[in-house]
Design a protein that fits this description.
By secondary structure, the protein is mainly alpha-helical. Among the domains are: about 5-70, no CATH class; about 75-160, Phosphorylase Kinase, domain 1 (2-Layer Sandwich); about 165-375, Transferase(Phosphotransferase) domain 1 (Transferase(Phosphotransferase), domain 1); about 750-875, Serine Threonine Protein Phosphatase 5, Tetratricopeptide repeat, CATH 1.25.40.10. Helices cover about 65% and strands about 5% of the residues. The chain contains 38 helices and 11 strands. Strands 1-2-3-4-6-5 form a 6-stranded antiparallel β-sheet, with helices on one face. It has a 3-stranded antiparallel β-sheet with strand order 7-9-10. Strands 8-11 form a two-stranded antiparallel sheet. A hairpin with a 2-residue loop joins β1 and β2. α17 crosses α19 (about 460-475) and α21 packs parallel to α23 (about 540-560).
Amino acid sequence: MDRDRWERVQLLFHEAADLPAGERRAFLAARCADDPALVDEVLALVDEDTRGDALVDRDLSAVASRVLGEEAARAHPRDLGPYRLREVLGEGGMGVVHLAERTDLGSLVAIKILRDAWLSPARRERFASEQRTLAQLNHPSIARLYDADTLPDGTPWFAMEYVDGVPLTRYCAEQRCSIRRTLELFRDVCEAVLHAHRQAVIHRDLKPSNILVTRGGQPKLLDFGIAKQVEGLGSRQDWTRAELRLMTPAYAAPEQFGGEGQGVHTDVYALGAVLYELLAGSPPFDLEGRTAAEAAEIVARQAPEKPSAVTRRAERGAAWADLDVLCLTALQKEPARRYRSVESLIRDVDHYLRGEPLEARPDTLGYRAGKFVRRNWRAVSAAAAVILAVVGLTTFYTLRLAAARNAAVAEAERTRRIQAFMNGLFEGGDPAGPADSLRVVSLLDRGVRDARALTSEPAIQAELYQTLGTIYQKLGDLDRADSLLVASLAERRARFGDDHPDVARGLVALGLLRSDQSRHAEADSLTREGLAISRRRVRTDPAAVARASTALGVVLDGRGEYDEAIAVLEDAARLDSAARLPPADVTATLTELANSHFYAGHYAVADSLNRRVLAMDRAIHGDRHPTVAGDLVNLGAIQQEWGHWAEAERYYREALEIYRRWYGEDHFETAATLNMVGRTMIQQNRGAEAREPLRQALAIRERIYGPNHPSVASTLNELALLAQKEGRLDDAEADFKRMIAIYRAAFDDRHYLIGLAYSNLGGVYTERKDFAQAERSFREALRRYHETLPPGHLYFGITHLKLGRAMLRAGRYAEAEYQSRTGFEIVAQQTEPSVRWLEAAHTDLAAEYEALGRPADAARHRAELAKSAADAAPASTR
């Protein structure tokens, strides 16, 4: 055997050995189509390796297994950073997956460790690619990446969310899921895939075994080991080599077998195959034992049987006809005839669940006729002249219909402009501000009475209800806004049905109100429904799609789904430009995008966006408009997170002056800004000054929102911090606990703000020297952050520093050093050396290293602390 052939045999052997036994022959047949004998040679080596008869003929991992035992062959250090390995969960082509426990939090994770890294540089790169992919994905139905590092020998590993579940198909069978429940689970999976696509990630190996469902019924998408960035899919030759080796044939699209590449369309096909198996009990094609060439021929040539003909379920009829259309549209041979995106597939799932017509349709006479014409064009062209006269008449009436449609669109735009004008009256337009004699509330109440009298004109009545309801919402009267917006939507549904542009606007308006009311699940559902209706008319009214997309971004931001909100709002900003919306609408979308980046911890991006928006809003509205005040507040919040308290206060006070001028003292915007001013005063050790603005803010917010709203919790946080600084620890504890209860109820017990409240409560226990209780609170905060924030967020660092200080005071120096060092490394990446958290970290680390007998390290941190103080001092004092 020559050297080139032997090297090829070695490469194929290691790749085939990583695959399940049932997939090896098909894989090798595809790779060795020009040399069938090579297939048998490699399979013989793999079989011999599996039997393990000859020790010297096996690879190093097999030798180790025989000599040292199986556990030694795959042994790794028991402790990896903060994780302790417990048991092996499984082995795949790239790595060994262990169940592990995070020793500081007590939580379980799955740790994947690359095995046999020395055998294949490509495998190492795929392993690293999987880490990079998971790091950018943050979705409740995607197993999250928590941590990554290397072993002492350089072998990479990463920790991810441990999913205790069963494959999707098995779960649905064992739970005897109804069609509705099955589709709801499938929809969650589609949402996860859509999230990945919005991050430009194609999964490439979607199948039931990569979709686990937890005991609580939450699907989790796993195994991004062969996922790929869209821009990195490479050439056709690269696609061919990668796909034939890595794809799962039963769920692979026809074009993948032909080496025509992958993209959104191949993931859509795989989702269709998964749905088919969920409904029919088996994949679309039986490829068991088939070679790659045989599988390619079947998938490319044969049409899958309708799921309704395969399934044994008793239900039949129109509902199953729609299910057939859903599956078979996703499984079309030609990518252009499938759902164009996962979002399109989701829309039709939603249509089915609501009993609405699907957007997809089965093959029609028109499609088949088109095929016929292309085959028989000579004969058909002879009949064209006869048809021409009919076409002319049809064109005439089509143009008349188009004119009518354009008139309707113009009318809708006129209505929108009137509504915007009315809203503008109450937001402000005159530089002098609204006159005291206007008596806004009285005017609104009279407007509602007049609107209720318009029973003979229900369309106008519904429009006025929405306009007035939106104004009440702006003024903070959410109960009045609720009754009007609900009435408006009900009237429109009764008059126009469920699929009308006015219904879409009503759904979006009510969704935004629900978000303000912290009814986040309803807000999400309403806004998505409104957006779906608008998208069906995107060609005639792109502005409605743009505005609905912005609204969905606002709702997602309110739910704490920041990564998805960013993706939606970036798309909305592009839609704003394409639809040529007024500049004020464009800045509103950019503001929401900046907010989502801020809450995700992307402070530099948020700062850049907000400064751009401030310049635009000043050009549009002047310097003293409430919209400009909102921009100033946002810039102040960023300075606050960076620890620039005086600069933050300057922005807040400028905004407060504008809000007071427009809205007076008893308005929710005034309250919010008073709260922020008080917060900066506390941080600057001016607690006595902070007390009054904070009390005013709490009174206004409780009056507007009631006692259990997140805005109330935000003010309670500041009052609790003030009480803690003043030594009133019982008051601080009570306020923090009330804050936790409000956030847990408002956000379904899942939000980073709950973690923030626990972190602050831990500070109270540290002050009391109740270090055990403090530790429990800090660890609960970290657990909440791991569920809701991206790795490396500033809040992780701050809470690790707090936990380190509690352990230092308890005399647990080694543990304290680990926590303080972990927090220091995170905070140092995002703030300036003079920020007090870094100064506190240097102080604590110096004390911890001194106690641990490491004076050189202690001296280094004292020197850094002194340098920071010197750099922060005014020039005149140096």
